[in-house]
TrEMBL record:
Domain NTP pyrophosphohydrolase MazG-like: 132-208
Gene3D superfamilies in alphabetical order: MazG-like
Organism of provenance: Allocatelliglobosispora scoriae
Top EC class, one word: hydrolase
Name used for this protein in its record: XTP/dITP diphosphohydrolase
GO molecular function: ITP diphosphatase activity
Top-level taxon of the source organism: Bacteria
Keywords: Hydrolase
Length: 243
């Protein structure tokens, strides 16, 4: 029987153990190798998988492991170097083993936003960033928004992609700085996202409010939007007056 090496790639942005049925079946049926301990190896062991740490992974090391089928649990970056090395070795000596790539999980849409939040967190240690305030950065918010509008008006979609990233940077930086505000003034990027979601649901009952609110009448849709917006503004003013 031909030996089989399965390179199991998972998304580092999803909780450990959240794998496809195919991946779980493979991990329970065959030995799992990994370069280091992780939340994923812990989850696999808890589920009964046999996991062995191979501190210095290489094509030779994988080919030397016992068993007809082994699962290599790739690291967060996908272990492209190891996959390339193993692929080249098997291209020269195909009788040694078969190599299979298996995706155990995939990044959901918007997953890179988590990376953006993580990068912004790292940037908070930068001396220049630490010296800034919401007020000192306000001009950059205007500047980036203007440049995004300019890209829209000139139909420069490549520039628009870049400028939207710069606008996103401003949102993330201000939200991260807000975590350092005192008491009730403090908020996080999750608060910002949560407020956005709640606002969109309130203002779009024709989408989120069930069949009794369904309509394609643009005048009605806009009327509801403006009415709910006015209610939100009045409620916000009331809360401020109570302070």
């Amino acid at each position: 029987m031909t030996r089989r090496i399965v390179l199991l790639v998972t998304s580092p942005r999803l909780p450990a153990g959240l794998l496809s049925a195919e991946a779980w079946d493979a991990c329970r049926a065959h030995p799992v190798l990994a370069a280091q301990e992780s939340d994923q190896t812990t989850a696999l062991r808890i589920a009964g998988a046999e996991v062995t740490i191979l501190p210095v992974p290489s094509a030779d090391a994988l080919l030397a492991t016992a068993g007809q089928t082994v699962i290599w649990l790739a690291g967060p970056t996908g272990d492209e170097r190891l996959a390339r090395e193993l692929g080249m070795r098997l291209a020269r000596e195909p009788s040694l083993a078969e190599m299979e790539l298996m995706y155990g999980s995939w990044d959901p849409p918007g997953a890179r936003l988590l990376d953006a939040v993580a990068v912004t967190e790292r940037l908070s240690a930068d001396p220049w960033r630490a010296a800034q305030t919401h007020r000192s950065l306000a001009r950059f918010m205007l500047e980036e928004a203007r440049e995004a509008v300019e890209a829209i008006e000139t139909d420069d979609h490549e520039a628009l992609r870049e400028e939207l990233g710069d606008v996103l940077l401003q949102v993330l930086i201000h939200a991260r700085m807000a975590e350092e505000l005192p008491g009730d003034e403090r908020f996080t990027i999750d608060d910002v996202a949560g407020d956005y979601v709640a606002k969109m649901i309130r203002r779009n009952p024709h989408i989120f409010g069930g069949p009794e609110h369904a309509t394609d009448d643009m005048d009605q849709i806009l009327e509801v939007w403006e009415r709910v917006k006015a209610q939100e503004k009045a409620e916000r003013a009331g809360r401020r007056a109570e302070r």
